[in-house]
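User: structure tokens for this one?
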Amino acid sequence: MFHGTTMESLINHWFDMWQASVEYGLCEMLNKQAIRAENAPKDGNFAFNISECEAGLPEGTVDSSSVERVYKELPKWGESTEGARDRYKNIIKTLADKYPTENLLLVTHGEGVGVSVTAHAPEHLTVYEVEYCAYSTLQRTLKQNESGTAGDFKLSGHNGILFTSTSPEVDEVVKEPEPPKSSS
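Assistant:
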């Protein structure tokens, strides 16, 4: 740590360095697979209040002046799992395209974290478990050409995401390297 610095001042300094925004597209899947029917509102309206959510963030961190939400409202109750997966894939790409030179921290739910892996891994993967507080790290290069487009995402790290390969070429046995022979 930094000598003579309180934890509170370190946290405040860290919060001064980032801006936050709440995006509907990163919400939980709104279906019975993710939310028990008895916990869902009878009318299907979750009445999520973004202002209340943002009020819980440290003062000065909410970027409400320059951020336009991609999704203007929550998805409708009963969305399909495939529809939610498409939504997660779309929101990751859309936000990254919207802020191509920024590092983004997207906080979402298990299905969204799983999609971040399956949609951007070099081989075909099936995620079968996403642990609590799991994460993935995606990277892409920004092409400096006339269109200013970005390259494809590459999965560069993950933790707490369990998956299996569904790609035949990955199922081949990979041999461990031979240990170096001693020169005695």
